[in-house]
Specification:
Strand content: under 5%
Number of helices: 3
Number of strands: 0
Structural class: mainly alpha
Helix content: 55-70%
């Protein structure tokens, strides 16, 4: 069987799951709080990405950061398409 045709499953470490889950949950919480108080939820999400990402703590893996950046670019394309 050719291994290039599929991606093998590797069980992630519990620490990676907890870091990613906390990142996603805090993104939503920070967005909600700052959007309600000061209408700037996106600023809080960017700051949280800096804290969890490479600039400060580096808790997210490089592959996770790459996937998040690609989703961000897709979001920008969709915003431009919508306009």
């Amino acid at each position: 069987m050719n291994s290039d045709r599929s991606l093998p499953y590797r069980e992630p470490a519990i620490a990676a799951i907890l870091v990613q889950a906390s990142f996603i949950l805090l993104l939503n919480a920070v967005n909600k709080v700052l959007d309600t108080l000061m209408y700037c939820g996106l600023v809080g999400q960017v700051f949280l990405g800096m804290v969890w990402g490479t600039p400060l703590m580096g808790m997210l893996g490089r592959d996770v950061e790459t996937a998040i950046v690609q989703l961000g670019y897709l979001g920008l394309v969709l915003v431009v398409y919508e306009g």
